[in-house]
Amino acid sequence: MRSFWLSLLAAVAGGLLLRAAFPGPALWPLAFVGTGLVLCSLMHRSAGGALLVGLASGLSYYFPLIAWASLFLGPVPWSALSILSSLFWAGGAVLIALAYRRVTARWETGPKRLLLVPAAVAGLWTLREGIYSAWPYGGFAWGRVAQSQSASPFAELVSWLGLSGMGFVMVFLVALVLELGRSRARPLTWATAAAAILVVTAVPLFPTNTIGSARIAAVQGDTPEAAYFVEGDPGDVFLGHVNATRTIPDDAEVDVILWPEGSIDLNPDASPGVRRTLDQLSDSYGAPIVANTVTVEPGETQADDRFFNSQFVWDAESGWGDQYDKKHPIPFGEYVPDRDFWYSLAPDLIGMIGRGYSPGERDSILEIGDIKAGTYICYDIVDDVLIRDAVLGGATVLFAPSNNADFGKTDEPAQQLAFARLRSMETGRSLVQASTVGMSAIYSPEGRTLAELPWYEPGVMIVDVPLADGMTPAVRLGRGIEITLGMLGLGLLIGAGSSKTQRMRDSATRIRLR
Q: Which residues pair with 357 in a beta bridge?
């Protein structure tokens, strides 16, 4: 597209279509169409033009994708996060536009162009996603292109390549089709590319080993009072989960009872009534309860106290057991980084976040008898490093307690649940997600739905969940996949630029020798 305005239109349309590939619409094929339009908008663009076009596509993508943030934080933080995300997107767009100019110029024809141009574009896309998933303030890993594919034929790739590798393959295939069109490839070449796409969709899930099962009861209390800005009496959230738990049949013989994030709004350490109730529930069902509350690590003064979002094991015989503290609290939601600086810019908004959680330092595996449960509290589910660390540490099942009460019936819970399903397939582990108000579900190591609960209804899912060991290639290789693919894209871009410079020097030398 040589027309800037046509490119701008394609960029906006591409961002909107890519967003529609995610839940709620969850029209996964649109991820490929949207990515194609975004890439087309960057062809023949200068660095400045690519920056503007990339910013437009980023804004049209992120603003609707994370519109749920406005319900929790309001329009200003939602806008700030969307704009920051779009600036990263625009930076990646500049690199991709440079790759289209330089790599295409370096390899103008032939099979090298058909492979190396898509590889450079997909690698730079992966590089941008990887950087923004980790920086600044721990990054924002929500909205990577692979996360749109939880229900697609491509989903099983995630067990081999992880989210980053799967995203690379998706962008590579789109860029390959575009290069075939640009180079006016022969029918045989098109047929070969089509066969390659079919092979990719037929890749089976990497198998792990089933080593037994555990009967898990996952509780959804239907407690809107767990929302940050919803008024409720102290103990309402706790009682909601107690009442839902009591619907478990007496003869269920469960091994673990899982409660969601934010399920206890009265700290058991300070409330004898909470401790007695937990003891009674655990004793009556003969199973430990894995619940969540706010814990405090006292400092030298009250101002030095550290607060943690903690998931812990409670057993009638031994009381408080193993504990995991959320390692990835949400910046500007659960804590304010560089608080003094940001408070000087927006005191009213920053002042709303009165208590900040500290990042946890404990390992994320809860040991519950013979069960090792890798545990991810809410937003933790998008952190690749946390997911991998728990499986490497011996987790045989994954728990994903969450509190979605702040987001109402927006698309956020469905997006999070889709990411959770991909995690079960990526790791080869069963995954149990329990939410205060929904969405709650249990997935097998193959990503099959074993149970689910509707929104805003109390209930319990009781499932014999497969336990597994063994490591998928995605877990074994970890961020090495992301780094390798990102460096591939950057290396091709730099190499093509160096080759162009050398050709110009050689040409100048020949002219002087004449």
A: 307
Beta strands in 364-438 (DSSP E): 365-368, 371-375, 397-402, 431-435
**pLDDT of amino acid 353:** 63
Rounded to 5°, the CA angle 332-338-342 comes to 65
List Cα–Cα distances, 392 to 204, 359, 466, 472, in angstroms: 22, 21, 18, 10
The length of the chain is 514
How far is it between the farthest Cα atoms of the chain?
Answer: 96
Q: What is the rounded CA–CA span in Å between residue 87 and residue 79?
A: 12
User: What pLDDT score was predicted for residue 509?
Assistant: 46
Q: Helix axis angle, 75-106 relative to 30-42, nearest 10°?
A: 60
Spatial distance between the Cα atoms of 115 and 138, rounded to a whole number of angstroms: 33
Q: How confident is the model at residue 508 (pLDDT cuts 50, 70, 90)?
A: very low
Angle at 108 between CA 169 and CA 199, to 5 degrees: 25
**What's the pLDDT score for residue 513?**
42
Whether the CB-CB separation of 149 and 29 falls below 8 Å is answered with no
**pTM surpassing 0.90?**
yes
3-state helix, strand, coil in the chain (%, to 5): 55, 15, 30
Alpha-carbon 383 to chain mean position: 6
Pair 460, 219: CB distance under 8 Å: yes
| 244-261 pLDDT tens trace | 999 999 999 999 999 999
pLDDT in tens, 100-125: 999 999 987 778 899 999 999 999 99
User: d(Cα 13, Cα 88) in Å, to the nearest integer?
Assistant: 19
Q: Which of 311, 225, 308 is nearest to 260 (CA)?
A: 311
Q: 123 exposed, middle or buried (CB, 10 Å; 0-12, 13-18, 19+)?
A: buried
Q: Which of 431, 425, 452, 456 is nearest to 440 (CA)?
A: 452
> In the beta sheet, which residues pair with residue 461?
218
User: Sign of the CA dihedral 183, 11, 92, 384?
Assistant: negative
Residues 6+ apart with CB under 8 A from 68: 407, 408, 410, 411, 412
CA dist 450 and 216 (Å) reads 12
Task: Provide the pLDDT confidence category of residue 29 given band limits of 50, 70 and 90.
Answer: very high
**For residue 428, is pLDDT > 90?**
yes
Q: What is the pLDDT of residue 218?
A: 98
Cis bond before residue 439 (omega within 30° of 0) = yes
Work out the pLDDT band at 7, boundaries 50, 70, 90: very high
Looking at residue 242, its amino acid is V
